[in-house]
Amino acid sequence: MADARSGVEHAAAAESAVRTAGIVLAVLAVACRRLCPQRSFAVATLCAVVVAAVGGAPQVSVCVAVTAYTAAQAGEYVFWWSRPGVAALLVAAGIGIGRVSSSWLAVLVANIALVCVGWFAGLAARERRRRLVATAERQAERERRHAAGLRQAAIDERLVIARELHDIVAHSMSLIAVRAGVARMVMNTDPAQVAETLGIVETTTRQALHEMRLLVEVLRHEDAVDPALAPTPGLADISALADQTRRAGVDLSLDVRGLARPLPAGVDLSAYRIAQEALTNVVRHAGPTRATLRVEYRTGDVLIEVTDTGPAEPDRRARPGPHAATGHGLIGMRERAALYGGRLRAGPHGDGFQVRALLRTDDPAS
Description:
By secondary structure, this protein is of the alpha+beta class. The chain has two domains: 2-140, no CATH class; 234-366, Heat Shock Protein 90 (2-Layer Sandwich), CATH 3.30.565. The chain contains nine helices and five strands, in the order αααααααβαββαββ. A five-stranded mixed sheet has the order 1-2-3-5-4. It starts with a helix and ends in a 6-residue tail after the last strand.
């Protein structure tokens, strides 16, 4: 009798030691779950099986739920249900082996529920974290695109300003340089022509300053433009442009065809600037020569064509070769034409040179 009682006491002491060791290992698994979540979950599950086989302890079941949460949150699984399923089966086997009270079914359900709740809570936390990361990435991408759009807008604006300054300064300075050269040559023989030249220089300078002042005011604030400075030049001013070119020594013929009509502001300005740049090139490269400026209003587009016959004195001033097509002036004209769905051709024409630009006057997308 005493031996039997002693055996029972030894068995109870062994079960208590196993239970304590299982609880300690499960708690250590919880403490290490961030470093190795899957192994911690496996260790906590095995501890739960062993402890359940010797009578069970609710602390171990809680440890299994916590490690299941961390493992589900940290990993990516093809068969997401396999690990919690195996863990639930092992816990159920341990409860079946152990000696539990008549409420073993409730204990079984509670332990399996703890495993499943911990696992699904971890899956939900992982999915929420993924959504937050995706939202942050989308926001960062939107900000990058916005910043890139601002940079591109600034670049485009600088290009527009550069084109405008080039057109204003190049045209005016070319006329002034040509007329100043004429004045220098005749200053002792023809004072009347010198006076006329100085008047042309004064008028051209005032007009250039006027256009540059308008451009500067637009840069300062788009609503701060003085109404007295508007409007910007357009094809309605083409006759005045032709007169300026004639005063620079070019025998220019103006040919306007079709029914003149109001054009969209951007198209009107671009057409004028293309004609201005082409005539400036005639003055600069051909000098005193004969040229034709043709403006043709068509249905849906407008044609600008400038043709000259070449230098009157071929040996005095060289005509631009093929490399001239890469100059900033021709590049700017091509950009202006392309901006409104048009095209520009420039190249030798007989002994002279021809610039031919076609700009659409309606929506290019229509």
